[in-house]
Amino acid sequence: MSAVQSLEEFRRQVAAWMAEHLTGRFAELKHRGHAGDGDALPDLRREWEQELAAGRWTCPGWPQEYGCRGLSVAEQVVFQEEYARAGGPGRLGHIGEGLVGPTLIAFGTEEQKKRFLPGIREGREFWAQGYSEPDAGSDLGNIKTRARLDPETGDWIVTGQKVWTSLAHLSDWIFVLARCEEGSVGPKGLIFLLMPLKQPGIEIHPIRQIGGGAEFNSVFFDGARASADCVVGQPGDGWKIAMTLLSFERGISTLGQQLGFTQELATIVEIARENGAAQNPAIRARLARAWAGLRAMRYMAIRSLEGGTSAEEELERLGYKYHWSNWHRDLGKLGMDVMGFDGVIINDDHRREQLRQMFFFTRSDTVYGGTNEIQLNIIAERGLGMPKEPRGKA
Amino acid sequence: MDLNFSEDQRSLRDEVRRLLNDQASSAAMREAAEKNGGFDASLWDMAAAELGFCATNVPEAFDGLGLGAMELALLLEECGRRLACIPAWSTIAVGTPLIVSLGSEGAKSRLLPEIAAGSYRIAVALPIDNPQVAVRAQQSADGYVLDGAVSLVADLPSATLVLVPARFEDGKLGLFAVAPDDGLKIGSVQTIDLTRPFGALKFEGVRVGADARLDDAGFSEEALAQALLPGRLGLAAEQIGAAQGCLDLTLEYISGRVQFGRTIASFQAIKHRCAAMVVDLAEARSLLYGAAANLNIGASEIEMEIDALGVLAADVLWKVAEESIQLHGGVGNTWEYDPHFYFRKAQATAFMMGSSDERLARIAAQVIDGAAA
Q1: Which chain B positions have a beta carbon within 8 Å of A297's beta carbon?
Q2: Closest Cα of chain A to B250: distance in Å?
């Protein structure tokens, strides 16, 4: 069997599993829980994570020695595509699977791997990300949350505030980047800690977003504790670990995300056909342009996943986030324009509500994970070698 | 799908790039553009004869290299980058595929080995803004008679072989090869693009022999459209390459230009605009390689992809060219600096092989009214 045939066989296998399991009581989850709808149906989605785990579809790209499938990049892409095609819900386990696991596999102790990887793989323990702070958004090095060593217990005692913490209210653990060296500035003197969210000294406050939902939170730490064995790497290594973790964030999920975009575009086209917007030449041109951008995005992603290492390919890769997020933001506006005034009327038509939520949520696409402005700085400075932005005094 | 280049593809690109960096300098381009009607004969001789440009997509059975659309794209990107004043697009991307796709075995074995050797500069007699057949053919006792006019033919002034798709009375199409001095009336047309010469072509009862006909028994509009896909892809490749060349010279200029005690490249207002151009280029180029891979295998949505590519490529060249003039400031508006050559090419190519409006309309018809959403 050729590689292509076996990949197609694998595709059928994933599709069949999804058809068989995303049904019955889970049918309600189809297309739910994605960006803009991230806090939907949390209890059922926890159970769905365990259903996935029972089928060994959680963490499918982790190595086999951790009890996972150890899928190739191509297979993981196929899995993501078929998951999205079947309408698989937003993954509560995403941060554990995509970020914490790979980070622990790279930097964790044996004990940490034993302690945390099974909970992620089995869909039992969910994770949140504690990077951004009110004064450390684009300037992540400016974090002020303090970690102080308690000499009696060996615990690290954490005080400060994290913000934009996705799904903290539904999570069990959080990883926290904190300042462990008094007086240090920027990327120096940081520590990477793993902390249980349910403990005295941690308070979680939801942040209501412009679309009305609340997927994000502020997390307040006031003397909360991380035990000594919950430091990843050495105290002081925090920045290096945090940056490596961010590099895991990109990549595999991309093509699944694009299938979601394809479905959104299809919904907009469907509505345009129904309400007559498809007769409007300006709308037709915009829909065609959206199709062109999405197709180009697909090839950008494939080229990026294939991992070419020439300077030109590295440069193209730096542009990917800026491209997809701006394309998607434009799609959010296009969906509303296709609906016309009908789109601004709040009703319970599921497709229209989905497009309204997308309209609001896509405004954050060009902000989270590196704003447009930061992306352009990175492309100009790292990619084109243009002079760096001057920094103000700390 | 494999969109990263093989070692062979990389070395082909590097070799072409090296030659053009040496031989298609700004000074050489200006010499050809300003004094020689947009044709650099010595560059052509070197590219065609020594480097074997023309063998790229001629099948191996006819003494070519038998390479695909990806290599064609790489080659034309490099030509675009240096605004090389040679008929590479007309000869390699448009002319050769017409013969490969539509020619009879006899015609192919007669012409293709010579084409591969670089013996011909080809112009294709289709209206450049709307590549529909404009010439009529009639059978005569000893061959054919051609009538009609094509007002704007790319690379006609330097051509040594004119390929003429023509329509018979019964609606079928035929492909003819005519030498420019075979009774054709060639008028000169000056366009704003100084790096590609154009001409007007008239056939008034031109008699050609039976062997001038290259196809076997006629072909359909659809077959002609398919045979023109490499030409559409190649045009986009040339535009994307030109955008890259124009961005490169702009980056070089702004890195040296000092105002307020710092290079203007250090201003964020300028950095961001350059970075945005990089993203647009990455978008168009990724679609170029994706479409090239799909053209090689004849994938089902290839026409849509090539239309989409045409839109993105025209957009990115226009955007980079206008930004280039702006970022050069005052000198960007002088004849002495190069941005205007790219700016000219941007506008002149925007309506070649159809317009972006037409391309978007065709995509929309598929996405909205067809099944491709």
Answers
A1: 283, 286
A2: 12
Q: Which residues contact B140 (CB under 8 A, 6 or more apart)?
A: B207
Are β-strands B135-139 and B122-124 bridged in parallel, bridged antiparallel, or unpaired? Answer: unpaired
Cβ of A376 within 8 Å of Cβ of B271? The answer is yes
Distance in Å from the first CA to the final CA of chain B: 21
Q: Is A249 a catalytic residue?
A: yes
Which residues of chain A does CATH 2.40.110.10 include? 127-237
Residues 328-387 of A with CB under 8 A from B: 373, 375-377, 379-381, 383-384, 386-387
Is the per-residue pLDDT at A58 higher than 80?
Answer: yes
Let me know: does A132 contact A148? Beta carbons within 8 Å: no
Q: What is the mean pLDDT of each run of 10 residues along chain B (373 residues)?
A: 87 95 97 97 93 96 97 98 98 98 98 97 95 95 96 96 97 96 91 97 96 96 97 98 98 97 97 98 97 93 97 98 98 97 98 97 95 49
CA distance A372 to chain B (A): 9
Question: Structure tokens of A293?
Answer: 């951008």
Write a three-state SS string for B35-93.
HCCCCCHHHHHHHHHHCCHHHCCCCHHHCCCCCCHHHHHHHHHHHHHCCCCCCHHHHHH
**Would you say domain A127-237 falls under CATH 2.40.110.10?**
yes
A277 touches chain B (CB under 8 A): no
Instruction: Give the residue numbers in B contacting A (CB under 8 Å), as ranges.
Output: 1-5, 251, 255, 262-263, 265-266, 268, 271-272, 274-276, 278-279, 282-287, 289-290, 304-305, 307-309, 311-312, 357, 359-361, 363-364, 367-369, 372-373
The string of pLDDT tens digits covering residues A295-321 is 999 999 888 887 777 888 889 889 999
> What is A3-92's CATH number?
1.10.540.10
% of chain A beyond a pLDDT of 90 = 78
**Domain span(s) for CATH 1.20.140.10 in chain A:** 250-383
Confidence of residue A250 (pLDDT cuts 50, 70, 90): low
| CATH class belonging to A250-383 | mainly alpha
Alpha-carbon distances of B32 from A346, B51, B92, B197, B200, rounded to whole Å = 64, 20, 20, 10, 20
Q: What is the ipTM of this complex?
A: 0.96
Instruction: For A281, name the nearest residue in chain B, comparing CA atoms only.
Output: B361
* Calpha distance B313→B319 (Å, rounded): 10
Whole-number pLDDT of residue B198 = 97
CA distance B64 to chain A (A): 29
As annotated, the residues of chain A forming the CATH 1.10.540.10 domain(s) are 3-92
Alpha carbon distance B272, B274 (integer Å): 5
Average pLDDT taken over every residue of chain A = 93
**All structural domains of chain B:** 7-120 (1.10.540.10), 123-218 (2.40.110.10), 228-369 (1.20.140.10)
Q: Identify which of B1, B284, B368 has the shortest CB distance to residue A296.
A: B284
